[in-house]
Each structure stands twice: as structure tokens, then as C-alpha cells.
Amino acid sequence: MKILLRNARLLDATYEYEKQDVLIKDEEIIAVADTIDQEADQVLDLTGYTVMPGFINAHIHVTMGDGPFREDVLRGFAEKGVCMVRDMGYSCKTDVVEYYSWLRDHSSADYTQVVSVGRFVACPGGYGAGHGEDTTGVLITTPEEAKAAVRAQVRSGSKAIKIGLGAMSKIGRASCRERV
Fold first, then answer.
1. Are 135 and 78 in contact (CB under 8 A)?
2. Tens digit of each residue's pLDDT (9 = 90 or more) over 78-118
3. Is this structure's pTM higher than 0.85?
4. CA pair distance 167, 180, nearest whole angstrom
5. 83 with 109: CB under 8 angstroms?
6. Most CB within 10 Å of its CB: which of 10, 13, 48, 124?
7. Do 88 and 117 form a contact (C-beta atoms < 8 A)?
């Protein structure tokens, strides 16, 4: 059975599209375009409605500690209809280049898509800062270091930034007054 959804706002893991046509055959999306001119068993006008091809989990951690990346978790999410997860700070000491390489290698249809914030950007005493050598975030102590850390995260591939500021830290108070 073919179903044609016309004029839908389509929201997927990375983009929002206005007025898209979506063609579904036997419960699988087979085409998405501005206009689809194909016969269908059923045509629905979805003007004003949003179509999401799967669920989104907005807060996970792909890895914790020094353990391996959780390939089984990404596959499990995909099998259960979760099309995108947001990794809210990978919490291990693995090199950032290796991390993003692993994400690229696991970006097929077999895995849910990962939108990552990369490493935590944290001040001493802030969330994600750890202690001494246990720090998994990018430790910052000045607004200038915060700016540099955010820029480095964006250059490495982060789609968002997670900042852990301690309520009583000097940088936390300074950041309330100065935009980083």
C-alpha cells in the first residue's frame, strides 16, 4: 500500500523542511521531495502538521568512563524507532578525533543518528569537571578559555555545547555578566 503525505512540515534529526511530500510504501518512507507526482492508494494533505520519521532521545551519553563506545545502544535505539539521539557530553578520555571518526563510521541506517555536544566545557567545581586527572570535560578558568573551548568544540564537529558551571565559581558569576 502506498500513502502520499502532501505539504507536511518534515522534522528529521538535523533539519526542518517546510512543505514536503512524503511517499510511504508498506510502512517505509521511500521518497521525500518538494513535490512527488506518483500514484498512491491514499493521499493525505498535512498542511499545518509536522511529520517525524522517528523518535528523538534528547539526552544520552554514548560512552561513560573509559569503557567502549556503545555501539549496541545506537543499534538498539535504531531498532526501536529512535532516529536521533543527542549525546550530551561524551564522558571518556578518548581523543576527540577518534570519537568523531567513530560517529562517522556509525552513521548508517543500522544506527540511530547522533548529534553530539562533544566534551563538557566546565569550570572547577562545575558539572562535568571531575577532579584532577579524572576530568573528562574541557576545564576552563577564564572567559577567554571558555571562548576558545567553545570554538574548538565547534571546529571538531560539535552541534551544540554543554557547559557545566558551578554556582559559586568565579567563572560562573563572570559568565552571568559576560557572554562567552
1. no
2. 888 888 888 887 766 677 778 888 888 877 777 888 888 88
3. no
4. 16
5. no
6. 10
7. yes
